[in-house]
Design goal:
The structure holds two protein chains of two kinds.
Chain A (H helix, E strand, L loop, with lengths): L3 E4 L2 E5 L4 E7 L4 E9 L6 E7 L4 E4 L2 E6 L4 E6 L8 E9 L6 E3 L3 E6 L1
Parallel strand pairs in A: 2-11
Antiparallel strand pairs in A: 1-3, 3-8, 4-5, 4-9, 6-7, 7-8, 9-10, 9-11
Chain B lengths: L4 E3 L2 E4 L5 E6 L6 E7 L6 E7 L2 E4 L8 E4 L6 E5 L8 E8 L7 E2 L3 E5 L1
Parallel strand pairs in B: 2-11
Antiparallel strand pairs in B: 1-3, 3-8, 4-5, 4-9, 5-6, 7-8, 9-10, 9-11
């Protein structure tokens, strides 16, 4: 069964600190993996996208890693800011079908001043 | 337009009523997706359009749900005989192609009383 699992479910950190969010997947055949940021009451916004051959991708203070062998990905946020408070969703696409774009349940990140 | 827009932003209806939710994708995007998101969960795939045709409707939960995209641009998600369990945020996304980055609208929050 195609699944995407994220951990932790929620996380609270102090402003300025770093954090790492985890994503494990069983989607097959693998096409790509994306991380999205979703602010409350808004639609998700793409942060990074990685294909099978890529194992790291950065977007400003966000760095995503991918280990296709272990089917794990992480999103590292450096020097967190209050505006980073949001849900972060891992999305894995299987080849060939739109219905095989599988969303994780997200990690709810709260940044405290 | 500048982004994906959805109307209405909020819809409250009574059980058994019919509702229509509208999505205006980014101009030029041939791929359009509908998702449903419950509180604390990631988006759940409903249907995908490539142009005017529904290329994959395997996510529609039952025959009360129907979606159209008659001219390959604006799409309407239609729900008949609404049930309380239909209450959720309905998200629309568009992309250039199936494997390209999806741009999400702000969603329509549907509440069935």
């Amino acid at each position: 069964k195609n699944q995407v699992e994220q951990s932790p479910q929620s996380l609270i950190i102090l402003e300025g600190k770093n954090c790492t969010l985890q994503c494990n997947y069983t989607v097959s055949p693998f096409s790509n993996l994306r991380w999205y940021k979703q602010d409350t009451g808004r639609g998700p916004v793409s942060l990074t996208i990685m294909t099978f051959s890529e194992n790291t991708k950065s977007n400003g203070r966000y760095t995503a890693t991918l280990d296709a062998d272990t089917k794990q990905s992480s999103l590292h946020i450096t020097a967190s800011q209050l505006s980073d408070s949001a849900s972060y969703i891992c999305v894995v696409s299987a080849s060939s079908s739109a219905s095989k774009i599988i969303f994780g349940s997200g990690t709810r990140l709260s940044i405290r001043p | 337009g500048a982004g994906v827009s959805q109307t209405p932003s909020n819809k409250v209806t009574e059980k058994g009523k019919y509702v229509e939710l509208r999505c205006d994708p980014i101009s030029g995007h041939t791929a359009l997706y509908w998702y449903r998101q419950s509180l604390g969960q990631g988006p759940e795939f409903l249907i995908y359009f490539q142009g005017t045709g529904a290329a994959d409707d395997s996510g529609l939960p039952n025959d009360r749900f129907f979606a159209v995209r008659p001219e390959g641009s604006v799409s309407t998600l239609k729900i008949q005989r609404t049930e309380r369990g239909d209450s959720a945020v309905y998200l629309c996304a568009s992309s250039l192609g199936i494997y390209d980055t999806q741009y999400f609208g702000p969603g329509t929050r549907l509440t069935v009383l």
